[in-house]
What we know:
By secondary structure, the chain is an alpha/beta fold. Strands 12-11-8-6-7-14-15-23 form an eight-stranded mixed sheet, sandwiched between helices.
Amino acid sequence: MKQAxxxxxxxxxxxxxxxxxxxxxxxxxxxxxSVAENFHWKKPWDRVLEWDFEKPxxxxxxxxxxxxxxxxxxxxxxxxxxxxxxxxxPNDPKERFVRFTYRELYHEVNRFANVLKxxxxxxGDRVCLYMPMIPELxxxxxxxxxxxxxxxxxFAGFSSTALADRIQDASARMVITSDGMFxxxxxxxxxxxxxxxxxxxxxxxxxxxxxxxxxxxxxKEGRDKWYHVEAREVSDECPAEEMDSEDMLFIxxxxxxxxxxxxxxxxxxxxxxxxxYTFENVFxxxxxxIFWCTADIGWITGHSYIVYGPLLNGATTLxxxxxxxxxxPGRFWQIVDKFGVxxxxxxxxxxxxxxxxxxxxxxxxxxxxxxxLGTVGEPINKEAWDWYHIHVGRNRCPIVDxxxxxxxxxxMISGLGGLSPMKATxxxxxxxxxxPKLLDEQGQEIREAERxxxxxxxxxWPSILRTTYGDHExxxxxxxxxxxxxxxxxxxxxxxxxxxxxxxxxxxxxxxxSGHRFGTAEIENAINKNPHVIESAVTGYPHPIKGQGIxxxxxxxxxxxxxxxxxxxxxxxxIKEIGPIAKPDLIQFVPGLPKTRSGKIMRRxxxxxxxxxxxxxxxxxxxLDPAVVEEIVKGALV
Length: 638
Ligand code: WTA
């Protein structure tokens, strides 16, 4: 088996980046074939790429056969068998951490794979994972990949209703979960949430329960099985299923501008090549480094840069169960010093939250091991960037501001740690193989510098989404129809005279709260389920820590009830329908919503009011009832 040699595709200078970039655009097939050669394929490809953004249809490494878990694990056994693959740090600093070498992780994944098989799961079956950040989450993910089952990981902060929606949409045959979960000072009854969700999910035959908290939970006879009991009965060797490069690897649900979250589908070969390539080059990982991405595996960042990217390159990846502020706001830095973390990758919202607690929480830590710092998930403001650079990076670590999306699978625009020029609030240059463009309202390309436009990508890269699960038309409409011949990101951006990109934020009806995406329609649907509510409209507004907060304008059916009670009831509805992360920050009761004569809500107006700029409402002459706007401005909460 071909051993992993990430150095073969490692870029070592900015000049080399420029050469590689040019090559990747002039000859994408040759370029990606030369990267892909470094992986283990059971059968080579016939063609590197076939694509058509009209349909849309994109295929990479056609007819090649492979298995990504084999590339993450088996391939390292000869040279890195005793190297640490995973370090797991529990929520409570008093509990002991756990480590797995590549050999140990290999056996654990094989064992889990056999438990899946024993319970009737095979190639193509969808398995939903709803779990805390414990090693078994990574192990189960890789076990699915090993036998060709499609994993659909649902962030364990979602409510039972949101979980049920996702299980139903994917017709999952199995759910993997745990008895309970620790997160900061909170204890969350994960298994109970799964039980509630399953009341409305017929497709699920078995639930595998991993023991974490040792709480007593209901185990439904015939359906629910303890992992540790099942694991005793199987071997720790399981052959890796032969997968086609274009077979589905996973589904990951994400919010869009319509009410229902969509299942973004990634396939095996392209995702493997691209996540490995970007991990190696963006973070400039060296063989004995320890890499830490603080995301949850329930989001794309965790998929690509806790699990797949690092393991594909034989890296040591750190996984943390807890939160940055518990038991105190020095928790991240304590972990960095404890293990000597070299690359640290987090979200602007975490940086801003820690900033608010003050620098004193950093004083007692040396942070000397750090070499590269990264951010992801939302635009980073200058103050947070400076704080990160000065207080965490001690003015010596480069920051990579990595722009990408669930749909892109891997990092698209970013500096390469220490090689590229840095400019605060700018993500920087596109990765090799990525051809971004800025378009105006009419779809004309903007060539001059410093002008804002719609960010689109003109060519396929290996880990572009292939479809939205069960609804290809939706994929086409959302990403390939706004501007013909381009993938539309939903983001606005601008480019400086040196060609560096700055991402401004979403231009569609998506709000980015603490790096979590929500569709405004999704939140409105939930609010409207509250019996007091006639209708509602939500928009984002600038929030000092979350980046964007959720501002809800609500029209009530009855006004007798105490307004605070109704606010609390609405928040409860959100917790039930989506989860605590979707709670609105501000709820304003309004007599009506600003609508056009055809009944369309004029969101632009509501957005301006929420941004504290009621003087800039623009043209309101098409409004059905302009008086409503005056009322809303009078009662505005910002
Ligand atoms: C935003 C997260 C500015 C953007 C990997 C994008 C960013 C959405 C950045 C995707 C960044 C992500 N600078 N904005 N470095 N990274 N975003 O799918 O609006 O959870 O469209 O993927 O986050 O969020 P998602």
